[in-house]
Design goal:
mainly alpha; 2 domains; 3 helices
C-alpha cells in the first residue's frame, strides 16, 4: 500500500489517507488475525462463537422491527 503526496497536502493529511487505505484494504485486520498461531480446534470454536453472536444480533434486530411495526400500525 502506498500513497503519493498531492499538491499542498500536509504530512498529517497524507498519513490519514494512508491509514484509511490500510483499513479499507483489510491489511491491518489480517495482520492482527495472523499475529498468533491458532489451532484448527480453536478456529472452529471461534467461528461457531462468531456465528452465534451474529445470529443473536439478527434475531434481536428482527424482533425490534416486529415491535416497531406492531406499535406503528395502531390507530390512535
Amino acid at each position: 500500500m502506498h500513497v503519493i503526496a498531492q499538491d499542498g497536502e500536509s504530512v498529517e493529511q497524507l498519513l490519514a489517507r494512508f491509514k484509511r487505505g490500510m483499513v479499507r484494504s483489510g491489511i491491518l485486520k489480517d495482520l492482527k488475525k495472523h499475529r498468533f498461531f491458532v489451532g484448527p480446534g480453536e478456529q472452529k470454536r471461534m467461528k461457531a462463537k462468531e456465528a452465534a453472536r451474529k445470529l443473536k444480533r439478527r434475531q434481536r434486530k428482527f424482533a425490534d422491527r416486529q415491535r416497531q411495526r406492531r406499535f406503528a400500525a395502531r390507530p390512535r
